[in-house]
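no rush on this but wanted to send it before i forget. theres a chain ive been looking at and ive put its sequence and its fold in token form underneath. i want to understand how the tokens follow from the sequence so walk me through it. thanks a lot i owe you, the record is right below:
>
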Amino acid sequence: MASIYDYSVKDMEGKDISLSDYKGKVLLIVNTATGCGFTPQYEGLEGLYKKYKEQGFEILDFPCNQFFGQAPGSDEEIHSFCTLKYNVSFKQFHKIDVNGKNEDPLYTFLKEQKKGRIKWNFTKFLVDREGNVIDRFGPMEKPEKFEPKIAEILK
């Protein structure tokens, strides 16, 4: 059976990054968009990251333009927007598709683990230190709502 650590993704510069680099970390994997009604969740995500990064928590941000074109622009433009408007300091990756024939293999795996098709931006997958996808949170679930679950897993 495949593990999350078997996948590689592209960073904003187009370099391959193995998810095995994150072994032993608690991960929150999120498909994001800069022009979405949920974009203000970047603030909550950054708050979680700052609060828990020293305990081994990482957020992996995958911009996605599949939902009404709400993530226009280049990777550089998206990163600039996120850092200037929301002071984002967690890792942002290359823009991807999360559904359909061009979906990133990581998202194929995530969807097999928890509940199927991605319906919108800011769907979040929580991965424990052993690489198990243990939960999925919908776009309407703000980061503050599932913070207790992250804190529990980090213990």
Summary: The chain has one domain: 25-154. The CA atoms of residues 44 and 144 lie 7 Å apart.
